[in-house]
Amino acid sequence: MKVEDIKNVLIAGSGTMGQQIGFQCALYDCNVVLYDIKKEMLEKALERLKRIASRMTREGRITDEQATAALSRIRTTTEMAEAAKDADIVSESVPEDPDLKGKVFGQLNALCPEWTIFTTNTSTLRPSMFAQATGRPEKFLAYHFHDIRMTNVVDVMPHPGTAPEYVTLVKEFAEKTGLAPIVLHKESTGYVFNYMFSGLFENALTLASRDIASVEDIDRAWMGIMRTMIGPFGLMDGVGLDTVWHIQNFWAKKTGDKQKIINADFVKKYVSRGELGQKTQKGFYEYPKPSFMSADFLKGIK
Ligand SMILES: NC(=O)c1ccc[n+]([C@@H]2O[C@H](COP(=O)([O-])OP(=O)(O)OC[C@H]3O[C@@H](n4cnc5c(N)ncnc54)[C@H](O)[C@@H]3O)[C@@H](O)[C@H]2O)c1
After folding, report:
1. What is the distance in A from the centroid of ligand 1 to the CA of 94?
2. Ligand 1 atom index nearest CA of 246
3. Which domain does 206 fall in, by range?
4. How confident is the prediction for the chain on average, in pLDDT?
């Protein structure tokens, strides 16, 4: 298989990340099918895709014509067989649970052509945790996105059983679709950036869950000293607090670490109230105008 042969992209799980990845691929001429188990997620996805397109157009990153053409290349379905039949590459973005991811890939393996490349967008899991369950471990690797509205940097990470030609193919595919891949030499939890960054989230949650400082002040400290537009809690709202909880909870259970359990419970309180961050307009902050974006949030900081 050559990179030119990768035309049909199957997005498995069409929430926050699946939508963004689908849009990016469609922007670069791929035919994209968004697959999800929930019909209402696909309806929401179509609305959000229009918002992503109009934001990029407004920011001058793409033209109206490019936006319209990209949207016309995206279709949606809840039928896995329909989505799988002609897929050249799968990008999986179902919730952060290795058993679920393994199960979805196992089902896809039975329905996709034998040439289809399988990639996971997992944030913190190692692909080897569910490589065997995919049924095609040699064609399986992690292809991980950050928020495409903010950056085009992606990670390409093999597990020990990935055939090297698939690492090269996915790297070339990333470049072909306007992205800047960082290729890892070996499997590592959290890739490059997230490995550094998860420590920040973890420590910010520890400070807040122990009530050492408020969410706002923790962000204020980070933003004021690092000169950034957003702090760790604002960023977690962008990720989605359900996803943040999944990650915290998974590692809390796996390690039994008391503070990790407290941190996961702290996030769970928001999730139980349906406050999932930007996607529900409420999380640690309220949207569309979170207080950290207001002029006086960093008042007095020079
Ligand atoms: N949110 C982020 O900033 C971010 C960034 C990078 C990677 N990730 C990773 O991407 C993955 C998805 O995260 P998200 O934030 O997009 O989650 P999300 O909750 O927004 O979306 C998950 C989607 O998967 C669907 N789904 C659940 N079970 C399914 C199944 N069996 N088959 C098909 N679809 C199914 C859900 O209906 C939902 O639409 C996770 O592994 C996460 O760690 C997230």
Report:
1. 4
2. 43
3. 193-288
4. 96
